[in-house]
Design brief:
Layout lengths: L8 E5 L11 H15 L3 E5 L15 E3 L5 H11 L3 E3 L4 H13 L2 H4 L3 E2 L4 H8 L1 H11 L6 E4 L2 H11 L3 E5 L9 E3 L2 H14 L5 E5 L5 E9 L5 E9 L12 E3 L6 H18 L3 E9 L6 E7 L4 H10 L3 H9 L8 E2 L3 E2 L10 E7 L20 E7 L2 H11 L18 H7 L7 H10 L4 H8 L3 H18 L12 H9 L4 H8 L3 H10 L5 E6 L7 E6 L14 E5 L10 H16 L3 E6 L14 E4 L4 H11 L3 E3 L5 H12 L4 E2 L3 H8 L1 H11 L6 E4 L2 H11 L3 E5 L9 E3 L2 H11 L8 E5 L5 E10 L3 E2 L3 E4 L12 E3 L6 H18 L2 E11 L2 E8 L6 H8 L3 H9 L1 H4 L11 E2 L3 E7 L20 E7 L2 H11 L9 E5 L5 H13 L3 E5 H9 L5 E3 L9 H6 L5 E4 L11 H9 L4 E2 L2 H16 L8 H6 ...
Parallel strand pairs: 1-2, 1-4, 2-3, 4-5, 21-22, 21-24, 22-23, 24-25, 39-40, 39-42, 40-41, 42-43
Antiparallel strand pairs: 6-9, 7-8, 7-9, 10-11, 10-13, 11-12, 12-17, 13-14, 15-16, 17-18, 19-20, 26-29, 27-28, 27-29, 30-31, 30-32, 30-34, 32-33, 33-37, 34-35, 36-44, 37-38
Helix pairs in contact: 1-11, 5-6, 7-8, 13-14, 14-16, 15-16, 18-19, 20-29, 25-26, 31-36, 32-33, 32-36
């Protein structure tokens, strides 16, 4: 069938900010959809609130709106743009839910918008638990026994019938939010109440537990003519009971019989045919290895986390093909070099793909590291190998956790067999590392299978690795004729043991291992994965188990870009954004581009982002092998965040040319002493500080500087291990706990700037001149990590002379350090004086933000500078002009506190956000209002406000209360705050704190009495903990604010929106059209 001609303009809804359960795989699918549909000649309107993505770049779609994702804003956009069609199944759960809500509200009908790809009733049949069950019963497909509950009482009586344990699943949610496995009545009451709240429709499914069964997934694609193909069979190695997003899994299925796979496929085809999805669908099954029962768990009628994995695992671009099918093409219309046309596709790769998740438990104090039906992972890696062992060990070294093999993690090798088996009872992020040590201590395959229900095959494979490692350990420290025999080294490499891990086991330098295997002719070889729907495109993976089939082209000069590795807190999609832009810019400059990365969710690992993609771990062994094979002119390390920077100096030692800012300069910025000396030379002030390796040194420094002080380890990203310390006792505690954080790298101690305004500037520098497009002002005061603070760009409250000072300091530092490329500077202003906090001579997480608000292509400009020594092009810096930017952008961070209900949601110097949104407007107050709306915490325009702040903030809170009272809010305050507010003549009501009797503020929040909560934490000096306030606010879904600085902007935002009703929406392209050069 030819493409549809009844539609011309298509609206695509993005998935919003990155949260646990919905990450950048939707940036990848949305970007692919824009590519496919524009190629077919459609005009694309894109809506998404996430500024860090490639899809919200002005070049990706024809018209781009960075707006909050809700019905009101979408109706405004639809009324203005009048699209003919809406494609909802590429924006994750957010996109699907919004489509369903727009349909219910009658908006689609009113403006005559057709839904393509997946029908609205299909969303209901797939998402609504009752509808889905009806459909399955009609098809004769078995499901887990279950009933739907609309109240806790109903749920209790259903659970009595089914027998505990039972699983609770709220309707219309994602990442298992609000659900869980419960073993008794009490647990059910707690989880069910949470689930009913999390569900859009107040509906929770109570189902029998199928704990310990195999969890199997099929990724299926269907077209309008009902041609159906299976793209990928995925086997979860962790059994049911662990969310698939946390589960360690393989493709193809390694232990499932052909006959069972055929049964799964037949059922999956029946389901997608009856639901009538066009494009990709993910179908999840459970299989009981004992009784051979198969039941369907759920379907996702959209591209999902699994479809990004399936795409990268098989080379079949599901999102790209889904968009073409939604536009009316069929699988028979899409040619493919390998299969003729795509309807003949079969998954027939002769390699094993492993996905392993990356968690961030270390960022959340008080969170128990256990995995269940609610997703906890913040990212994932994918690795490809010829054998299970090879792929598994490659996955472990891709994780960026400092582990290069499975053994000797933490102190696990010192624990007894009994203790190890006890720890395996509850699944945790350390499960497979514990299994490895348990096998070493003599646990049998049966014992481990009995506890974990992981299939015996996988435990046996692991046992063989343990035995092999024990044999290698016999040769520890031996040299000459006594050293590890050649054949043992060769076997170890074939089984995926990395050079680094072998060097740790044998206690010899990694270089010796590398030289020895090269002398034996043991080198990485590469094989290609064919990309379906293309003539002959492929991407490559390394193996020690096959001959090399990696054609090398010599046509153009080559440059290699190192990607960012797995998503994690502190290193997210922003760095992938930079890598993708660098690849595009290098192509335009006439280079062949090579990307190395191992993250399956991202645009950088899309086959056509670069000329050649290596799906490989970012370790010295893997990157050096590729470098020696491809012989590029140089490597760019400054765009991928901390991952490639940690590799840069090692690579340089091994003869690799690092383009742009040299690694030595990056080290200089990290070395406090050197950096301080340079600031003194330039006469730029810094907060007083010192470095300590012992408790005594630390106490002496702190006494000299005066409390409070900020303490942190050197060389970290995302503020890992940073704290503000107020007294000797806490400092002693910190030093004792922190000694292991950085061996031979001291702890840094700085004076903490109190009530200082923090700001940052991104610069592009050519080593002689630097350009700063705009200064960003943080809304939260100094002491809160820049990645977590909301910020306004261009700045509002910074005096003009301070802005000039900041720009001047930034230029001076960039020139003194000879930075080539991007640089990010952090400053604090205390009583009108500008202090430098730190310099990061690399791309930072604010690059996409500055690029979009100021309409400046930061990364392409930096890439032009970095490659100037090869191209001889003049520096673009001279031509950049200062601009007047009429629209403000407010970035707000998004936190995973709803997934970690036991954590106190306060902000500090350690980064905890997973993603961000952007609000844009002529008024920064409204921009802030929109940013809050985009993180689903819409500010009220009327109602009741609770104010309860600590002593330090008492003075400023009066102004906030006054503004809110004038706007008609009723104010409730706790005693201290109440006395202040009423003394200033502002009417307020007094409420009791938790320990003052009942009903208290905790009760009032839980009952939903407040529309807004302003509460700055009392801190360590108080006897009474007040974290219950903030935890209750999250549960009650009330907007809550934990700093007075943010409260001020909140009051301004509310006031602006109340006095300016009905503001129009503008596209990013229109806003860019309003930017003018500043008159000199």
């Amino acid at each position: 069938m030819p493409r549809r001609t009844d539609i011309h303009k298509v609206l695509i809804i993005g998935s919003g900010p990155i949260i646990i359960g919905q990450a950048c795989e939707f940036d990848y699918s949305g970007t692919q959809a824009c590519k496919a549909l524009r190629k077919l000649g459609y005009e694309i309107v894109l809506v998404n609130s996430n500024p860090a993505t490639i899809m919200t770049d002005p070049e990706t779609a024809d018209v781009t709106y960075i707006e909050p994702l809700n019905v009101e804003r979408l109706e405004q956009i639809i009324a203005k743009e009048r699209p003919d069609a809406l494609l909802p199944n590429l924006g994750g759960q957010s996109g699907l839910n919004l489509c369903a809500e727009l349909h219910k509200a009658g908006v689609l009908e009113k403006y005559n918008v057709k839904v393509i790809g997946v029908q609205v009733d299909a969303i209901e049949r797939g998402e609504d638990r009752i509808e889905f069950k009806k459909t399955m019963n009609a098809l004769g497909i078995e499901m887990a026994r279950s009933e739907v509950a609309y109240s806790v009482e109903e749920a209790l009586s259903i659970a009595e019938k089914l027998g505990y344990p039972v699983v609770l699943r709220p309707a219309y949610t994602m990442g298992g939010a609000g659900g869980g496995l419960v073993y008794n009545r009490e647990e059910l009451q707690v989880v069910c109440a949470r689930g009913l709240q999390a569900s859009l429709v107040g509906q929770v499914l109570v189902e029998e537990s199928i704990l310990g069964w195999e969890e199997l997934e099929l990724e299926v694609v269907r077209d309008a003519d009902n041609n159906i193909i299976t793209v990928c069979f995925i086997e979860n190695i962790d059994p049911l009971g662990v969310h698939t997003g946390d589960s360690f899994c393989s493709a193809p299925m390694l232990t499932i019989s052909e006959e069972c796979q055929r049964r799964l496929q037949e059922q999956a085809y029946k389901i997608v045919e009856s639901v009538q999805v066009i494009g990709g669908t993910n179908v999840q099954f459970a299989h009981d290895p004992v009784s051979d029962r198969i039941i369907v768990i759920e379907i996702n009628p959209r591209t999902s986390r699994s479809s990004a994995l399936a795409s990268k695992a098989t080379g079949f671009p599901i999102a790209l093909v889904s968009s073409m099918l939604a536009a009316g093409l069929t699988l028979k219309d899409i040619p493919c070099g390998k299969y003729g046309t795509l309807d003949k596709y079969v998954p027939d790769g002769d390699y094993v793909v492993i996905k392993f998740a990356r968690w961030a438990f270390e960022k959340f104090k008080g969170v128990e590291d256990r995995l269940g039906t609610q997703m906890r992972a913040v990212g994932e890696v994918m690795s490809i190998g010829k054998t299970y062992k090879e792929a598994f060990q490659k996955a472990i070294r891709s994780l960026e956790t400092g582990r290069y093999g499975l053994g000797h993690a933490k102190d696990f090798d010192t624990l007894s067999k009994e203790e190890l088996l006890r720890r395996l009872i509850t699944p945790s992020s350390e499960r497979h590392f514990l299994m490895y040590e348990a096998l070493r201590k003599g646990a049998t395959v049966e014992e481990i299978h009995e506890i974990t229900k992981v299939k015996a095959y996988f435990i046996e494979q692991m046992k063989e690795l343990v035995e092999e490692e024990e044999a290698v350990l016999q040769y520890k420290g031996r040299t000459g004729t006594q050293q590890l025999p050649d054949e043992m080294l060769i076997t170890a490499k074939k089984d995926g043991f990395s050079d680094k891990y072998l060097s740790q086991l044998l206690e010899i330098p990694e270089e010796d291992i590398r030289n020895r295997r090269l002398a034996l002719g043991v080198e990485e070889a590469w094989e290609g994965v064919h990309v379906s729907g293309t003539q002959s495109s492929a991407y490559f993976y390394s193996t020690y188990n096959a001959p090399d089939r990696n054609p090398i082209s010599e046509d153009k000069p080559k440059i290699m870009i190192l990607g960012g590795g797995p998503n994690r807190i502190g290193q997210g999609i922003e760095f992938d954004y930079c890598c993708v832009h660098a690849a595009m810019a290098l192509k335009k400059l006439g280079f062949e581009t090579i990307i190395v990365n191992c993250n399956p969710e991202t645009v950088s690992t899309d086959y056509d982002t670069s000329d050649k993609l290596y799906f490989e771990p970012l370790t010295l062994e893997d990157v050096l092998s590729i470098y020696n094979k491809e012989k590029p002119l140089g490597v760019i390390a400054q765009f991928g965040g901390q991952t490639p920077l940690n590799l840069a100096s090692e690579l340089e030692k091994n003869g690799v040319k690092i383009l742009g800012t040299p690694p030595a300069v990056i080290d200089l910025a990290e070395d406090r002493d050197q950096f301080r000396a340079m600031m003194e030379k330039l006469e730029i002030p810094m907060p007083e500080s010192g470095m300590a390796t012992t408790v005594e040194e630390a106490l002496a420094i702190a006494t000299g500087i005066g409390y409070p002080v900020m303490v942190r380890p050197s060389y970290v990203l995302g503020g890992r291990g940073m704290e503000v310390v107020y007294d000797d006792e806490s400092l002693t505690e910190y030093m004792n706990a922190a000694v292991g954080v950085t061996p031979d790298r001291p702890i840094l101690i700085d004076r903490f700037l109190n009530h200082a305004l923090e700001c940052e500037a991104d610069a592009i520098s050519d080593g002689r001149h630097a350009f700063v497009p705009a200064v960003m002002e943080h809304i939260e005061l100094a002491g809160i990590h820049s990645g977590d603070s909301a910020c306004i760009i261009p700045s509002v409250h910074i005096p003009e002379e301070s802005v000039e000072t900041i720009k001047e300091y930034t230029r001076k530092i960039a020139e003194e350090m000879h930075v080539k490329g991007l640089m990010n500077m952090q400053y604090a202003i205390e009583n009108g004086k500008v202090f430098v906090l730190e310099a990061n001579p690399r791309a930072s997480r604010t690059v996409p933000l500055v690029s979009k608000v100021c309409n400046i292509r930061m990364v392409p400009l930096a890439t032009d500078i970095i490659t100037a020594e090869l191209t001889g092009r003049p520096s673009p810096i001279q031509d950049l002009k200062e601009q007047a930017i009429p629209n403000y952008g407010v970035k707000e961070a998004v936190f995973p506190f709803n997934m970690f209900p036991e954590v106190d949601p306060i902000l500090g110097p350690e980064m905890r956000s997973t993603g961000e949104v952007l609000g844009l407007s002529r008024s920064y107050g409204e921009a802030f209002f929109k940013a809050q709306e985009a993180v689903q915490s819409k500010l009220p325009l009327e109602g009741r406000v609770l104010i309860s702040v600590n002593k330090k903030d008492k003075d400023e809170v009066v102004e906030v209360a006054g503004s809110l009272a004038q706007d008609g809010f009723e104010i409730v305050a706790t005693e201290g705050t109440y006395n202040l507010i009423t003394a200033a003549g502002i009417p307020a009501t007094k409420a009791k704190k938790l320990y003052e009797g009942r009903p208290n503020v905790g009760d009032m929040i839980t009952n939903g009495d407040f529309d807004l909560i302003i509460n700055s934490p009392v801190g360590k000096d108080s006897v009474h903990d007040d974290s219950y306030l903030r935890k209750a606010a999250i549960k009650a879904k009330a907007p809550y604010i934990t700093t007075v600085a943010a409260a001020k902007v909140t009051a301004e935002g509310i006031h602006y929106v109340k006095t300016h009703p009905g503001s129009a929406v503008k596209s990013l392209q229109e806003m860019h059209g309003e930017i003018r050069d500043r008159a000199e």
